[in-house]
Amino acid sequence: MLKNGSIGYEVSGLQKLLGVPMTGHFDEKTYQAVIKVQKQHNLIADGIAGPKTMIAIKGDKKEIIKLLNMDDINNAAAQLKVDAASIIAVHKVESTGTGFLKDGRPKILYERHIMYKQLDRIGKDAVSLMKSYPAIINKARGGYIGGASEYTRLGLASQIDVSCAMESCSWGAYQIMGFNWGQAGFESVFEFVESMKVCEGKQLNAFIRFIEADTKLHAALKSKKWAEFAKIYNGPAYKENFYDQKLAYEYANAKENLA
């Protein structure tokens, strides 16, 4: 992501696309040009040229319609009775800014310890399977590859049990775990996954239903108790990834940008 203070050839490339002087420094003219594009496409106007803004700058209409816009955010905020900055903060922290990979597939993170639990829940011999496939079935968290490579892990797990594999991934912009498909308002994990493929607006709708179904989580979001929210939403290991601090930081930034 390119922002105020960034320097180098990537900034020059951005400036060329924006039609501003190619200084190689992300300056005020570049910042204002980025803001203009973001507002034109009803995106979050933060002056940061991340993946979504680059899609808008390049004018890829097919991809632009998949992006979350401020109407989506404001509608979600009204439904959940929170401010728009809260929705933006969760969006930015959970997805690092976008719910899709460059190849168009929704972002996922495969969790091998969840796969172990899901297999055990349906009566499969998770212990034996873990011994044979420790990289994708394990009592311990980890083994992450990141990005598109997470689909390789999902594919391997799907050969053992496709439902459990899908349930063992967090999906989209809000990284909702697949096993929460019911709480997110779906009839099956398959319906949930298909919705995640459509657009970030659909991903946000799932997030809204997920939050509404958990009174403690909803209360934490409304009161901006980020540690409590992260503990429920991300699990007890949230401190390892500083989720509460990241949420507080992104919330403060969003409030300033929306002012």
Tell me what you see in this structure.
The chain is mostly helical and 259 residues long. It folds into two domains: 1-65, Muramoyl-pentapeptide Carboxypeptidase, domain 1, CATH 1.10.101; 108-258, no CATH class. Helix content is 56%, strand content 3%. The chain has 15 helices and three strands. A three-stranded antiparallel sheet has the order 1-2-3. It starts with 8 loop residues before the first helix and ends with a helix.
Instruction: Compute the CA-based radius of gyration.
Output: 19 Å
Sheet bearing the most strands, described? 3 strands, antiparallel
Q: What is the straight-line distance between the termini?
A: 22 Å
Averaged pLDDT: 94
Strand content: under 5%
Judging from the principal axes of the Cα atoms, what is the shape? globular
Structural class: mainly alpha
SSE series: HHHHHHEHHHHEEHHHHH
Tell how many strands the DSSP assignment holds. 3
Treating each run of at least 4 consecutive H or I residues as one helix, how many helices?
15
Strand order of the largest sheet: 1-2-3
| Model regions low in confidence, pLDDT < 50 over at least 5 residues | none
